[in-house]
Protein 1
Amino acid sequence: MTYTELAERLAVNIARCLDALLENDPGDIDISSGWIRALHQQIAGDLFPEWAGRFRTVEVQVGTHFPPAPHTVALHVENFCRDLAERIKHVESAESIAKLLAWADWRFQWIHPFKDFNGRVGRILLVALCYKLNLPPVSPAVDEAGRTKYFAALRQADRGDFAALEELWIERLGA
């Protein structure tokens, strides 16, 4: 299968996931480890049944970033979900929403829980989070021109500086 064919099949699966997500009441969305794995399974399960929906079991490198060891991924995802649930309780303003979305965006990609398609899962997770927060539709995807800026913002967040990523979210939110 060519990359174009793969991308088209994934796009269809992603559209189904987004449709199913929007059929829920925002308050009923429970971003959990199981929900994240199920999302990955729905996106890639028909293409890669042997590993879709399962946390990675191999070391990976993403650009200059080395995500956590495979045996720690499940714990990192569980902690991410718990931390996210607590952070949602303290959202008060547009600035705090941008901070939350920047943190969630970075942390999920930092963990890099799956062998592949983490960006796609992360973008759906962010759409779900925006929907859960009753925000207007926001696209977390970046165009080709914005990719360099986005990846630089993620690497900056790796060093504890979220300013650039927060600014990207403020722009996306139109705040």
Protein 2
Amino acid sequence: MNVNKQTIITLLLTLVAIAGRAQAFQYRIVGNIGMEFTGWLYLMNQSDKDYSDVDSLWVEDGVIRTFEGNAQEPFLALLHSKGEDLVQFPCLFVEEGTIKLRPAAMTTRGAAFMGTPLNDDWAHFYTQFNKIQDASDEGRITQTEANQELDSLAAPFVRNHGNDVLGTVVVSFLEDLDNERLMDYIKMLSPKQQSNPIIHDMRQTILAVQQTSEGTMFKDFAVEYNGNTTHLSDFVGRGKYVLADFWASWCGPCLREIPNLIAAYNKYKDCSLQVLGIAVWEEPDESLKAIADKNIPYPQILGISEKTTGIYGINAVPHIILFAPEGTILARGLRGEEIDKRLEGIFHNNK
């Protein structure tokens, strides 16, 4: 049989189209959102770099009207409203089948959906994750013990879901683990999942932390506020030890750390120590209000963005860094009593 080139191309295109249709699936989202709300909710694809809204569904008196959609592959989504009546339901895994929204969604953040394999597995993981976090926050276990329990919880999930977006999301919740272990988890993911923006950003954070680890020289940055430009190098590398606190006024642990920093300032300000506040991820006016309320006596750099904190791989606050007089990073992640112990060791030995 003679088959010309055009026929072959047509056959190939047909096979590709059939294969594409075979991968597509249908999903439904049903349920009660657990609050009085009438309006549109939008489905944002968070697996996509652009974080675009891909569909919308109508909610009336809190009940989702029958909604069906189609997708080529499972993806992580955020179900949200727009405007003044902001409603958000995170960690929705869009996959084949009927996905049910729990009425308790607003009080079980991140575990709001059930009825399909990925959503059910995520709800189980997130419930156990919260128990570990609560035990750590309440002081029933140490942070080291919490990390060990988290590691044991996460490992089977990531091994079982290394080829899908659930594995990616679980890895994104492991940021308290050390960087070497985090890289182990990233390597458990398939190449496709490793290219997910979530994992890409995590890898960049790990790299930034490695480049600003203890023993390395500080990296400078500049911030403009109120017509003035302030550099980190205005404080660091100028012959004094610098205790720099990356903080935010909305952060409870940050506010609880401030008395320790004020105590360090009062105790060592005459011993070549500069305490520096670096307010991040909020409007300067909010930072200034907290500074006044807490009577913070040491200088501040205001208006720090995520791009700037990314230089040091900081994705959570408070994050306290101690710089040597010439600008070398001596310690990262100091908290509580560790601050005074480290400073006492420095200034006692320098007497």
Protein 3
Amino acid sequence: MRVLIVDDSRQSKFYLESRIQTSPDYQVVATIASAANAELYCIRKSVDMILMDVCTADNTSGLEVAGKIKKNYPDIKIIIVTSMPEHSFIKKAREYNCEGFWYKEYGEMDILEVMDKVKNGRYVYPSESPVIEIGYCKSSEFSPREYDVVRLLADGKSRQEIADELGISSRTVRFYIDELKSKTGYEDTMKMVAEFVEKKLVINSIR
């Protein structure tokens, strides 16, 4: 299979290329830093599988580009790769019909094993996002709605703006914030949000 690697990390690119070279089943056709150029290789019909990083050069979302490629070239198999534990990435990859998802630093299996399973027609996803400690709590203890609130707080939204965007009341938003502070042990809301962002549990630049 002809494989395109899309990753702007030199270390990651070297690792992926090295692993693929150990298998006679795959050939790296190109390694590029920005997902913005990935579709050009698909147009040339020279790609069977893409290893797509989430955050690529030029601030281009690998997830969004993967969605476009799957829509226009459904036969190309895509495995999303990332080192970021942001909880929404797996959901978006599934929505875009990507065949696989692999954490660079938290992977449950080797990337070649993931590629082999995807090559054979399987969908391969981790059982859950990596568990990271936030204050006194673990990332697995937050609900999807709580993550939504934290992400919008990280975007600088007011309580009313968050309520309007999520279709809930301002009082409910306050309840979620109080619950988050209670779980994590933080008294300062923005210090709490800063830890979520620092540990990449929410990436407000990726939608």
